[in-house]
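Explain this one:

_____
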Amino acid sequence: MEQLLHYVWKHKIFPLHELRTTDGRLLEVLNPGIHNTDAGPDFTGAKIKLDGVEWVGNVELHLKTSDWFRHHHDTDAAYANIILHVATEIDRPLYYPNGQEVPQLQLAVPQQVRDNYTALSRSDGHPRCRHVVGALPLFTVHNWMTSLTLERFEERARQIMERREALDKNWEDTLFVTLARNFGFGINGDAFERWAQSIPMNAVAKHRDDLFQIEAIFFGQAGLLEGECADDYSLRLQREYRYLRQKFGLTPIDPKVWKFLRLRPQNFPHIRIAQLAMLYYEQRLNLSRLINAANLEETTALLLTHVSDYWRTHYTFDAPPSRPMEKALSPTSIQLILINSVAPILFAYGKYKSEASLCDRAFDLWQQLPPENNTIIRNWVSAGITCENAADSQALIQLHRNYCQRRDCLRCKFGYEYLRHTPDFLREQEEPSDNL
C-alpha cells in the first residue's frame, strides 16, 4: 500500500544498514520533506545527500517504478526535477528530460509496520488504538492534543469565513447565523442555519425595540405561522408577519425542516426561537459586545436569555397551555454556545483582523470551560486520555471526526505510536493485567 510507504518515508523508518540508490550511490536522508496533499510530487522541500553532495527538492514515491508511467508523470513538467524516486519495487530505470538517470531508492515497508497497520485497520473498537494511548508519555499526548485544538479552531474559522462570504461579508449577520445554528444543538442545526440566513437582519434591526414584531418575523420566517391559528397570540403574530412580509419582501422557509422526534419539549424549535428573539431584544448582542467582554463571566452574561410570557406556558402554538416555566437557557446550553459559537467567532475575527489577542481569548475560553460529555469523549477517557476542559474535548472531537471516522490513522500521532510498537507490546496492552 502506497500510503504505508509514504508513512515509512515521512517518519524515516529505514533499515539499519546504510542506504544506497540503485546505481550504488550512498544516500543520507537529512529531511524527508513535507507531505504534499495537492497535485505534484509526494514530498516537497526534502533534503538528501548523494555521495556527500547535498540536494534539496521534491521526492516521489510509488509501489513500483512503472507506476511513474502509469500515472503519466513522464509527461508532467511538475515531476521533471525530482531529486529522488522511492519505490518498493524498482522494475525499470527513470530518466530526466536531458537523458540523465533519476536516482532511485528501493525501500520496503517493514513487516512489523504492515502487521500493526492491518491490526489497527481491522479493529472495531472505539478508538481503534485504545490499547496503546493510555500507555503513551504525557508529553506525546499533550503535543498531539495541542495540535488538534489548533486544527479544530482553524477548521471552525474556515467554516465561519465561508458563511461570511455567503452573507455578503457581513460580520453581524455571520454572528447571528452562527449562534442560531448552535441553538439547533445538533438535531436542528441545519434548519436553524437555513432559517437564520432567510432573515434580513437589517430589516429586523428597524424593529429591535419591539419584541412582538421580532417574534413575528422570527416565527414567520420559520414557517410556523402558516395555516389556521390556535389562539389569539398566534393569530396576532400571523397578522403582524403578513404585514412585515409584504413590507420587506420576506419568504418563509419550509416548516417541514424542523425536527421534533426524540426532542424534549424544552428543546423544541419554538422555544429556541423564542429564546433567540429575547436574546436579540434584551441583550442587544453584537460582535462589538462580545469582543469587549472582559472575561468569561461577562461573556456568559451576554448569552443569558429566557422567553416571553406566552412561551412560559407554551411549547408550540397548537398545544394547550402548560404549567408556567421560565425556560431560560441552561448553564450547559450556554457553555455549548460559548464552545461552538463564541470562541470560534472570536478566533475567526481575530485571524481576519490579524489580532492575536482575540485568538488567545478564544483559546482561553475553551481552556476555562468544562469538557463536553458525549459518547466520543467518554470513549477516549475510557481509553486513558485525560480530558480536563473544552479545549481537550474539542481536540478529541476533531481527532474522532477527521482521523478515526476516516480511518486515517497514518496521519494521527496516536496511530504513529501504534505502528511503531512491537507486537509483544501491543499484546501486553490488550491483555488484562494479573496484578489486580
